[in-house]
Amino acid sequence: MKSLAMVGIILIAVGAAGLIFKGFSYESKETVAKIGSLEANAEITKEVEVPQALSLIVIAAGAALLIIGLKK
């Protein structure tokens, strides 16, 4: 399979995952207080939402690359 077609398939899969899962969360360690050499750290969970419009744009771009890749 040609490289543009492969990239198109990957973009379609990523866009579909964005539509299905609608976002993801991750944990990070952050310093919440620092007094002299003493530090207090906390693990904070952050949520990232993937806009539906972005997922649709990625799917459309993937479809376009797939069509172009298959025509060449």
From TrEMBL:
The chain crosses the membrane at residues 53-70. The keyword Transmembrane helix applies. Keywords: Membrane, Transmembrane, Transmembrane helix. The keyword Membrane applies. This is DUF3185 domain-containing protein.
